[in-house]
Design brief:
The chain is mainly α. Helices cover 83% and strands 0% of the residues. Helix 2 (10-28) packs antiparallel against helix 6, helix 3 packs antiparallel against helix 5 (72-98) and helix 5 (72-98) packs antiparallel against helix 6.
């Protein structure tokens, strides 16, 4: 069963890597290539989200909860997988709601930011998974150079969580205000 998880994780990784390139091409490109990137991005994101859910579920089925919750590296791996899924889900919803308009102006820059953030998160998720499988990469050294000890639990102080909650609430209020003005 472990092999199934290892196989399934490659689908969202490949799809999200391609989605990152399609976002860049769709926002910054021109002509037919940009049109194709824009038209193909949402179906690709739907496939990637389905693949990510299958990979996450298979991971929970393979290893017992006690093992997952005991290991700091596994907790980090799970945390990053959920963060990556959340960012790519948000990008898919934004694209679904805004359509072609999502690729221009500030919306386009938001797509680029989310794609790069999601790309970084899935890279960290994959790196941690590689460590768990006994295959560390050079990216691990970059993460370590940035100060993250891979074998310890990711930590966010309570004040940082409060700030994140306030920023999220502020964004939601701005979105509602913009919707009322535009709607």
């Amino acid at each position: 069963m472990t092999g199934i998880h290892h196989m399934l994780v490659h689908f969202p990784i490949a799809f999200w890597a391609l989605a990152t390139l399609l976002v860049l091409l769709g926002v910054m490109g021109r002509g037919r290539a940009a049109d194709i990137a824009q038209a193909s991005l949402l179906p690709l994101l739907v496939l990637s989200l389905l693949g990510a859910l299958a990979a996450i579920v298979s991971g929970f089925l393979v290893w017992p909860w006690q093992a997952n919750l005991y290991s700091p590296m596994v907790r980090n791996h799970i945390l990053m997988a959920f963060w990556a899924l959340a960012v790519w889900s948000m990008l898919a919803v934004l694209l679904w709601r805004a359509g072609k308009a999502a690729f221009s102006g500030r919306q386009g820059w938001a797509l680029i930011f989310l794609a790069l953030l999601g790309g970084g998160l899935f890279a960290i998720t994959g790196t941690l998974g590689g460590h768990l499988a006994g295959a560390p990469t050079a990216f691990s050294q970059l993460i370590a150079a940035l100060g993250w000890k891979l074998y310890t639990t990711f930590y966010l102080p309570s004040w940082a969580l409060l700030i994140l909650a306030l920023v999220g609430l502020g964004c939601a209020l701005l979105g509602l205000a913009g919707r009322r003005r535009g709607g």
